[in-house]
């Protein structure tokens, strides 16, 4: 799966851009809600809701007709839509503003299914699953690390030059959701971004009522681990199940039908004990020969997908303050630390030691390899 693979439901992407569904048509409300500071907010509002829909999609290479949401578009086309919006509004930080405008209702049935889960952990797991299906260019992973509960986001398909837009939009949107689901007395969050602070970095502080850090090992929302099992105020299992059923009945999904992505997701579950190609194929309902052939048809291989997963897991290990290269090597299935260090340099251009020096975490002790 690459930037040109049609795998993203158009109906889902319209929740990003059809702000008419959630915007109140008052400039003062827009100014307060989005934190925009402009001379004529009416003009900004007119641009947002007045853009010619046909031209908007046509310029991105999408032959769109009204009521034709049940089709798929590529990551490249989504990026082209973002490019038009950012340039039309002259707002490089548009992701922050749009994310802040998106309410639970704006996420539709996906939002309802998420917030009606019993606990915050279940809510974030549902969001992660929806992201896999509805926007596979990003992955979202909830996890517990010691006293920290972490909701991390990573780029699976290149979103350049607008990677920051998608991280800004989703980080603000899900930060706001968590903020409203959790009692105010437990609002002890911070947000990290893996990229350097952009020229509009000061604007980030308007949208996050918590510490904001850049140049971090990964993009994530961090809060107390104890919140994972906090019962949500809107918990309703029947409603959650109904919302999820309605969502997938009305929005087609295709992402998990792509074999490399299915394999990658499966391998991520086997951190520390990766299956052989034959065993992986068996779990996916095919022979090893068939899996090898189908992956080759997609321009990849079992080893390439395994290395991609290993690279991601090694970055996450260091981001969490991993203690030992030897330990990580064994967990990733390498025969020794030297083999891991050689592979890591091939993936990143850096040795594990160099990588950790550039991405320091506190209280880390390691047996370093050059």
From TrEMBL:
Please report the name of this protein according to its UniProt entry: AcaC family transcriptional regulator
Q: Which residues form the HTH araC/xylS-type domain?
A: 253-358
Signal sequence coordinates: none
Instruction: Enumerate the Gene3D superfamilies for this protein.
Output: Homeodomain-like (1.10.10.60)
Supply one GO molecular-function term: DNA-binding transcription factor activity
Pfam families to which the protein is assigned, alphabetical: Arabinose_bd, HTH_18
Taxonomy of the source species: Bacteria, Pseudomonadati, Pseudomonadota, Gammaproteobacteria, Oceanospirillales
Q: Which InterPro entries does the entry mention? A: AraC-type_N, Homeodomain-like_sf, HTH_AraC, Tscrpt_reg_AraC-type_HTH
Q: Which UniProt keywords apply?
A: DNA-binding, Transcription, Transcription regulation
Q: SMART domains annotated for this entry?
A: HTH_ARAC
Cellular component per GO, a single term: cytosol
């Amino acid at each position: 799966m690459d930037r040109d693979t049609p795998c993203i439901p158009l109906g889902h992407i319209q929740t990003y851009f059809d702000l008419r569904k959630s915007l109140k048509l008052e400039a003062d409300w827009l100014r307060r809600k989005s934190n925009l500071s402009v001379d004529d907010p009416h003009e900004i509002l007119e641009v947002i809701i007045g853009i010619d829909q046909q031209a908007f999609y046509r310029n991105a290479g999408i032959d769109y007709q009204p009521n034709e949401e049940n089709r798929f578009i590529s990551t490249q086309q989504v990026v082209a839509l973002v490019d038009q919006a950012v340039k039309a509004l002259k707002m490089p930080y548009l992701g922050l503003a749009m994310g802040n405008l998106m309410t639970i209702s704006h996420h539709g049935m996906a939002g309802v299914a998420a917030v009606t889960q019993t606990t915050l952990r279940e809510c974030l797991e549902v969001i992660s699953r929806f992201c896999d299906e509805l926007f596979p260019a990003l992955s979202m992973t909830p996890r517990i690390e010691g006293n920290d509960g972490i909701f991390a986001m990573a780029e699976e398909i290149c979103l350049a030059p607008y990677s920051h837009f998608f991280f800004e939009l989703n980080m603000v949107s899900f930060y706001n959701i968590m903020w409203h689901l959790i009692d105010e007395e437990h609002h002890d969050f911070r947000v990290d971004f893996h990229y350097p602070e952009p020229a509009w970095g000061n604007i980030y502080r308007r949208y996050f009522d918590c510490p904001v850090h850049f140049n971090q090992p990964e993009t994530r929302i961090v809060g107390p681990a104890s919140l994972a099992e906090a019962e949500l105020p809107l918990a309703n299992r029947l409603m959650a199940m109904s919302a999820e059923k309605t969502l997938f009945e009305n929005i087609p999904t295709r992402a998990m039908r792509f074999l490399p992505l299915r394999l990658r997701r499966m391998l991520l579950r086997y951190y520390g004990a990766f299956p052989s190609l034959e065993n992986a194929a068996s779990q996916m309902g095919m022979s090893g020969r068939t899996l090898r052939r189908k992956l080759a048809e997609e321009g990849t291989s079992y080893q390439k997908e395994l290395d991609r997963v290993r690279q991601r897991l090694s970055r996450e290990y260091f981001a969490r303050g991993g203690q030992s290269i030897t330990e990580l090597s064994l967990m990733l299935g390498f025969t020794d630390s030297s083999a891991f260090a050689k592979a890591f340099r091939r993936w990143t251009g850096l040795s594990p030691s160099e990588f950790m020096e550039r991405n320091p975490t506190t209280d880390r002790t390691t047996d370093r390899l050059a």
